[in-house]
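Write out structure tokens for NodB homology domain-containing protein.
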Amino acid sequence: MATPHNKHASILQYHHVSDKTPAITSVTPEQFAGHMQYIAENHTVVPLPELVASLKENKTLPEKAVAITFDDGYRNILENAHPVLKRHGFNYTIFINPALIGKEAHQLTWTEVRQMQKDGVWFANHTDDHGHLLDRKGMDERQWLAALKEDIQQAEAKLEQELGYSLKYLAYPFGEYNSAIQALLEELGYLGFAQQSGAVAPYSDFTALPRYPSAGIYANLKTLKVKLNSLALPVLSKPIDPELEYDNRTPQWKTRIDLEDIRPSQLSCFFKGQPMKIDWVEQDSFRLEINEPLSPGRSRVNCTAPSKQNPKRYYWHSQPFFVATEEGKWLD
């Protein structure tokens, strides 16, 4: 039996709320207000800790539940987003880098963070200083993972010291991670939040929970409405490692899904906005491949299919890929 639709939710991801910051990571205050007004009229905002707990315990959520998150502790969140969210009574979470708080002019101070906390805002770990987690910096695998562990735990300890609690959530800087980092988070008892698109459900991968980027080209309310109403594609196969070597960046992979509420003929997958050939190799499994070498940086393939129960709601899944340059540099 398919997972009931009221056990699915969407998580939105923002950075800047300003018309004076880089457009790629920004929504204007007017756009943001429009997003929140639509959500107020059509959805139920659930605090991220409550949403995650419900998913893990397989509990029912409010119909069309959504959680709101921000990455990086920018002051314009306080100036331009917080009043709007407060007016609507919306709870939200900011993933911050403790080493940068109060150290850069565009960042919140700890005093501001604590004041926002009194208003119900949650704060969580975005690593200490927002480095590229996949950058080995000349270290071997063991040294690299030990350094990541130290960074994550140091940032979490600072958050707990300043705020009095530890959520043990980590939002990956630049959305980048691999299987080894996911295993580290599982070992440490953390949940991981990524930046590929898709809804969440009790069967989601809790070391790489998808969030819908909602800034820049993704700030369009018409397309955001579809995402807010989406469902998590029920993937049954083991996640593939999203990190690719520079000399091996034409991925091929197989995905198995639960077809209880999905017609195979209605599944569509897209890369760079173009439809991909879907090769159904088994009744419930399909194969995809990208023939052109992926450019260094971040790429993703999105797959969607309408629900048989409610064709106006689409199942959604995004497969990210991360590639360094030929010299091993990770791009911002």
